[in-house]
TrEMBL record:
Residues 13-31 have a biased composition (Basic and acidic residues). It comes from the Bacteria. This is Lipase family protein. Residues 1-31 are annotated as: Disordered. GO terms for biological process: lipid catabolic process. GO terms for molecular function: triacylglycerol lipase activity. It comes from Williamsia herbipolensis. InterPro entries: AB_hydrolase_fold (IPR029058), Lipase_secreted (IPR005152). SUPFAM superfamilies: alpha/beta-Hydrolases.
Length: 490
């Protein structure tokens, strides 16, 4: 086999994990380093993508943990390398160890590795994506370690809100939601599970884009399982969990799983308030308290849909264009505060209803709607009836569509909660449900219990105390340890 002109030599999907026994080592630069066959490949994909004449080396940066993080747009770690498009999805392209910190300040005693890997964008083209993989403290490497992909509510365009940046020590990410969600990520580690935290909006922060988040989530799990230094098994049970914008990404992963990564052992997905219909959400939130959220979606989608971009360019006022440009740099909280009670009607030269009725806009809203395919794994959908951000009617329709398509759906439709509190209050139930799927227990065993309103479930309050204890360790920078939240809902 002649040496390729690319540093990455690709294979087909059928070749996953079937490569030659070629050795590789980690290196701090991007040069190719052929070594002896007894060394351990960094990734199964690395073996599959290599030849004896030109082995592929996934470079590892040992010094990243000691540097202030750069914004993703300025960080070479996120950039594509020549020939990466010839590798299979999930191939680890480079890795580094990083130091995490709560709110960017309180250093965490957690092993964290970031992986840049090959994935696929919404148009089917190769792209580079990044995930942050955490291993539970005190893990027994000889025991099976499940992995849960946790999708943060990035809900922004700026790289400051990407979890790979916002969760790091000395990150400047005021107003980024992943910094607060780290308390729930810690609860996953306390269960004894590994966690993959992907930048599911991709390198451009394309919130609301269809399919692409699912590809990134699935390929991030592939990369984590294939990265030999992490010591995870390829048949390890895999779960998904996310809420709001993270629930939307988790739903795309659940829908894309059978088509994109059927070899993964995905046992269940918890979809918390997964939006369902972004078009309906845009119309309902515009002009209200959370009008900045749909404005962020439009600001992201214009980068992908040329027809939508033309409409924005043609009909947005100069003041409106300045406002949309500012959104490109705003964190989620900043956007909500700046756009509070802002009506997009005031930024257009034509009525908003008329713009939304155009074929171009309707086509975009149709394409970004969930429910086109039924997940092939069991799902738990969590939704508050009194949610003022995500309509329960949209989630009712999504649950019905999934069930009609053959998905095993457990629907926690909570009558006494709302959007902000639903996620932490439902955490004991969500983690118990995931543990039951990981252990292979019958889905119907606790289905009725799972649908109880959180305020009427005694485990909610015990779980909040346990979550508070875990959070206290995060806030004070102590080791999290094994403190299962799920056991309180058994």
């Amino acid at each position: 086999m002649a040496p390729s002109s690319h540093p990455f030599v690709g294979t087909s999907h059928s070749d996953r994990g079937q490569g030659r026994d070629v050795g590789y080592r980690r290196t701090t630069d991007t040069t190719e380093c052929p070594i002896h066959t007894e060394d351990v490949p960094i990734s199964v994909h690395d073996s599959a993508a290599a030849s004896p004449e030109r082995p592929f080396v996934a470079p590892h940066d040992d010094a990243a943990a000691h540097r202030r993080p750069l914004l993703p747009a300025d960080d070479p770690f996120y950039r594509a390398s020549g020939g990466f498009e010839d590798t299979v999805p999930g191939t680890v392209l480079r890795s580094r160890d990083v130091t995490l910190a709560f709110l960017g300040v309180v250093r965490q005693r957690i092993r964290a590795t970031q992986l840049a890997f090959r994935s696929t964008d919404s148009q089917g083209e190769p792209m580079v994506a990044v995930t942050t993989v955490l291993l539970p403290p005190g893990r027994d490497r000889n025991a099976e370690c499940p992995i849960v992909s946790y999708q943060c509510a990035i809900d922004a365009i700026t790289g400051r809100c990407f979890p790979s940046y916002a969760l790091r020590l000395r990150a400047r990410a005021v107003g980024a939601l992943p910094q607060f969600e780290f308390l729930l990520i810690a609860a996953l580690l306390a269960e004894g599970w590994a966690v993959s935290i992907p930048d599911h909006e991709g390198p451009r922060g394309l919130w609301g884009i269809p399919r692409e988040p699912g590809h990134i989530v699935l390929d991030g799990v592939r990369a984590a399982l294939d990265h030999a230094p992490l010591g995870l098994r390829h048949d390890a049970p895999v779960g998904f969990w996310g809420y709001s914008g993270g629930g939307l990404a988790s739903a795309w992963a659940a829908e894309m799983y059978a088509e994109h990564a059927p070899e993964l052992n995905v046992v269940g997905a918890v979809l918390g308030s997964p939006v369902g219909d972004l078009g309906n959400t845009y119309i309902r939130l515009n002009g209200g308290l959370f009008s900045g959220l749909p404005a962020l979606v439009v600001g992201a989608l214009q980068h992908v849909y040329p027809d939508l971009q033309r409409i924005i360019d043609r009909h947005t006022t100069p003041r409106g264009k300045i406002a949309l440009a500012r959104l490109q740099r705003a964190t989620t909280v900043e956007a909500v505060l700046r756009f509070m009670f802002t009506d997009m009607d005031d930024m257009l030269d034509r009525p908003l209803a008329e713009i939304l009725a155009t074929p171009e806009v309707r086509a975009v809203f149709d394409e970004i709607r969930l429910g086109r395919s039924a997940p092939a794994m069991p799902v738990l959908i969590v939704q508050a009836v009194n949610d003022r951000i995500v309509s329960v009617d949209d989630i009712d329709a999504l649950a019905a569509a999934y069930a009609a398509g053959g998905t095993s759906v457990t629907y926690h439709r909570d009558r006494f909660s709302e959007h902000m509190l639903m996620h932490p209050m439902a955490a004991p139930t969500a983690l118990r449900w995931l543990r039951e799927r990981i252990e292979g227990r019958p889905i119907d065993e606790n289905r009725q219990r799972t649908t109880w309103p959180t305020l009427l479930n005694p485990s909610t309050f015990r779980g909040m105390l346990r979550l508070g204890a875990i959070s206290a360790r995060v806030v004070t920078g102590r080791t999290i340890g094994r403190r299962e939240l799920s056991e309180l809902d058994r």
